[in-house]
């Protein structure tokens, strides 16, 4: 079965085409600057030359039509016909409490995604646009949605509730939902497979750290706690997001600086984190370069980032009464040896012992970076959310027949 996986943003659309007989990627690409007359489509067919096309793409329906044209192009395509695509999987950030797993798209499912627009205003609306565009271009082809929040629906009430008036949960469902669930689920499963141990027997802390970042405590294969909350703002210090802070900071700053709700929301999501402390960049590569050069602002940003990351690892070890495996994944987790090294240096009380030479090796494969004597396995595992979505899509489509 050939499946198309789509991750739609407000002005972008990422895609991967899979042949699920062997889970191989036939092609992948990105449409950028949707809504403009100079939109860019970058198409990367496996075994053929990449192609880039600039054209007017004003909305997502046209974007997907352009993608399908490239997938079936005589020179750059990998399909004889669009009819070869038997299902489409979509990434959706917020599924609220309604979805504990991926789901076949129905009018009711789309209505629920729309109902959650307030909780993910930057992500859920584009997801609906992607679904509608798929249905318009490929009528009759089943669509499946995979939710970033679904994996975390196993959290206990004592973990996901906030200590605020209960009526706010009952009326507005204000609670911890988490994010990056597809990634946390994928790498925790791969970790168990790599170690050849039953996931049911493992306590795993998965560190998905990129420009957005979250940690999850995975016990027995299920999420028992995660660092992002009602929205992706809570938790770790990130590229441009503040992460945890005293809630009174919001009202205090609004009063002193005469900021609106929108302005303070923008400050916390787009102008905080590494960018705010360094004053120069939200990119960990730039921060690391500045730290190595002894620049004070970049050094402070690096140290704050590492400290908060390590503090959460310690908290989740306490939450699970121990830890067997720590997994680093996503952009920073997979590529920054120095972040991994400095974090693990101060986890010796848990029995973590890092092999610094193994840690320096760059590889696109799962690998161990702890020593044979380490009481905790430390792994680097490249995440693959698209493959996870493709697997769920295949399962649900086959199940529905």
TrEMBL record:
<feature type="binding site">
    <location>
        <position position="7"/>
    </location>
    <ligand>
        <name>Mg(2+)</name>
    </ligand>
</feature>
<dbReference type="InterPro" id="IPR023865">
    <property type="entry name" value="Aliphatic_acid_kinase_CS"/>
</dbReference>
<comment type="similarity">
    <text>Belongs to the acetokinase family.</text>
</comment>
<feature type="binding site">
    <location>
        <begin position="208"/>
        <end position="212"/>
    </location>
    <ligand>
        <name>ATP</name>
    </ligand>
</feature>
<dbReference type="InterPro" id="IPR004372">
    <property type="entry name" value="Ac/propionate_kinase"/>
</dbReference>
<feature type="binding site">
    <location>
        <position position="14"/>
    </location>
    <ligand>
        <name>ATP</name>
    </ligand>
</feature>
<feature type="site" description="Transition state stabilizer">
    <location>
        <position position="241"/>
    </location>
</feature>
<keyword id="KW-0479">Metal-binding</keyword>
<keyword id="KW-0418">Kinase</keyword>
<feature type="active site" description="Proton donor/acceptor">
    <location>
        <position position="148"/>
    </location>
</feature>
<keyword id="KW-0808">Transferase</keyword>
<feature type="binding site">
    <location>
        <begin position="331"/>
        <end position="335"/>
    </location>
    <ligand>
        <name>ATP</name>
    </ligand>
</feature>
<protein>
    <recommendedName>
        <fullName>Acetate kinase</fullName>
        <ecNumber>2.7.2.1</ecNumber>
    </recommendedName>
</protein>
<comment type="pathway">
    <text>Metabolic intermediate biosynthesis; acetyl-CoA biosynthesis; acetyl-CoA from acetate: step 1/2.</text>
</comment>
<feature type="binding site">
    <location>
        <begin position="283"/>
        <end position="285"/>
    </location>
    <ligand>
        <name>ATP</name>
    </ligand>
</feature>
<comment type="function">
    <text>Catalyzes the formation of acetyl phosphate from acetate and ATP. Can also catalyze the reverse reaction.</text>
</comment>
<keyword id="KW-0460">Magnesium</keyword>
<keyword id="KW-0067">ATP-binding</keyword>
<keyword id="KW-0963">Cytoplasm</keyword>
<keyword id="KW-0547">Nucleotide-binding</keyword>
<feature type="site" description="Transition state stabilizer">
    <location>
        <position position="180"/>
    </location>
</feature>
<dbReference type="InterPro" id="IPR000890">
    <property type="entry name" value="Aliphatic_acid_kin_short-chain"/>
</dbReference>
<comment type="subunit">
    <text>Homodimer.</text>
</comment>
<feature type="binding site">
    <location>
        <position position="91"/>
    </location>
    <ligand>
        <name>substrate</name>
    </ligand>
</feature>
<dbReference type="InterPro" id="IPR043129">
    <property type="entry name" value="ATPase_NBD"/>
</dbReference>
<dbReference type="Pfam" id="PF00871">
    <property type="entry name" value="Acetate_kinase"/>
</dbReference>
<dbReference type="GO" id="GO:0016301">
    <property type="term" value="F:kinase activity"/>
</dbReference>
<feature type="binding site">
    <location>
        <position position="385"/>
    </location>
    <ligand>
        <name>Mg(2+)</name>
    </ligand>
</feature>
